[in-house]
Amino acid sequence: MSTVAISRPVPGPAVTVASMPSPAITALDAAGLPYRLISHGAVGSLAEAAAVRGVAVPDVVKTIVVRRGADDHLFVLTPGDRVISWPKLRALLGVHRLSMPDAAGALAATGYERGTITPFGASTAWPVVADERLRGREITLGAGERGLAVAVDADAAIAALDATVADVTDPQPTR
């Protein structure tokens, strides 16, 4: 498996999905956010994604879609080695109930299939909550297509997304 990294914005054609510009790449370019595009092919796990991206597991950021209510969602960005702390997230949002939509619900809410979801270029600009452990790092995020990621400065991404930053995760449970 090979990894190709492309720094953008650079002159030339944008990454495309079915001959259309990728919404994620279009959104990153529109935000003026510097990034490296990483094309690495299919991966079977988060650890494998980290290896082919050349980063540590915590730097592979999971974008989780959370449902607050009917047609009310948000994105939660978590380091790869952590999971959402539901009590912390509920307290931050001042709600008693949260859930995760099924695959069809996530696609409907974001325009992206699970495993490709990113807040950049989503069909609806839902609010974003970023775990505080992301600050001060370079992170990788899905780029809206399988086998494609972007590496970005976390602080710049958090600012571009107008994300709320808080402690909303717990360590990944050991199996």
TrEMBL record:
Mention one GO molecular function.
aminoacyl-tRNA deacylase activity
User: Tell me, what's a Pfam family for it?
Assistant: tRNA_edit
Q: Return the InterPro entries for the record.
A: YbaK/aa-tRNA-synt-asso_dom_sf (IPR036754), YbaK/aa-tRNA-synth-assoc-dom (IPR007214)
Q: What's the source species for this entry?
A: Micromonospora coriariae
Q: What is this protein called?
A: Cys-tRNA(Pro) deacylase
Q: Ranges for the YbaK/aminoacyl-tRNA synthetase-associated domain?
A: 41-154
